[in-house]
Task: inverse folding
């Protein structure tokens, strides 16, 4: 069964460093998403991506965040200069338009 | 504005008790409805989903949910919970613009 895969599963980075979280969506899907979940809190929407551009973004998704679909298969989330409060689980999802399928997440720890 | 509301943030109950978690949404157009579960330390898993048709949908592990269009509700139920149902449960409408929005979640603790 097709699935969304995310790498790495866990990343530790120093404050101020750039990180790139990678996702491989399901191949025939057209919509792509990033969500994050700070420990003990709810799942928050960050950004949606359709037709090679951002279709919607939340207030959380400020200038330090960017997304890219560099090669038609990967879907990446870049955080330019990480802060301690960026520590969270980041989930990628893809959709054919009716249902979202989630990856297993990347746990980002900023120290 | 689109919104989703889960009524209970924290529920504690004993094994074999019945569980009902409330979810209300506020969306203008067509919406598909989902419940996700997150077991301690694990990722999100789909519990059940509703697209159309029979408003009573059955999911995994004995869970079911009822869509009541007039009340904009999609409540989750399980007649008899087990200790292994201890988890966080998220209601998540998926709107016609392709956005999945999560409720705040309900932490369910089942005591032996």
Result:
């Amino acid at each position: 069964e097709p699935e969304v895969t995310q790498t790495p599963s866990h990343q530790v980075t120093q404050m101020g460093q750039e990180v790139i979280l990678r996702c491989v969506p399901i191949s025939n899907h057209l919509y792509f998403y990033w969500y994050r979940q700070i420990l003990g809190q709810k799942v928050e929407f960050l950004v949606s991506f359709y037709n090679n551009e951002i279709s919607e973004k939340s207030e959380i998704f400020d200038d330090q965040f960017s997304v890219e679909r560099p090669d038609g298969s990967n879907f990446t989330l870049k955080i330019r200069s990480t802060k301690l409060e960026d520590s969270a689980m980041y989930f990628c999802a893809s959709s054919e338009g009716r249902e979202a399928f989630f990856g297993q997440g990347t746990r980002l720890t900023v120290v | 504005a689109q919104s989703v509301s889960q009524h209970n943030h924290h529920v504690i109950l004993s094994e074999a008790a019945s569980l009902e978690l409330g979810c209300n949404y506020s969306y203008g157009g067509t919406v598909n409805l989902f419940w996700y579960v997150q077991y301690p330390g694990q990722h999100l898993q789909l519990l059940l989903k509703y697209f159309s048709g029979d408003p009573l949908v059955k999911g995994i592990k004995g869970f079911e949910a009822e869509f009541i269009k007039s009340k904009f509700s999609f409540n989750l139920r399980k007649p008899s919970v087990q200790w292994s149902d201890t988890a966080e449960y998220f209601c998540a409408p998926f709107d016609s613009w392709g956005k999945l929005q999560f409720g705040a979640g309900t932490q369910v603790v089942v005591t032996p």
About this structure: Chain A touches chain B through 23 residues (CB under 8 Å).
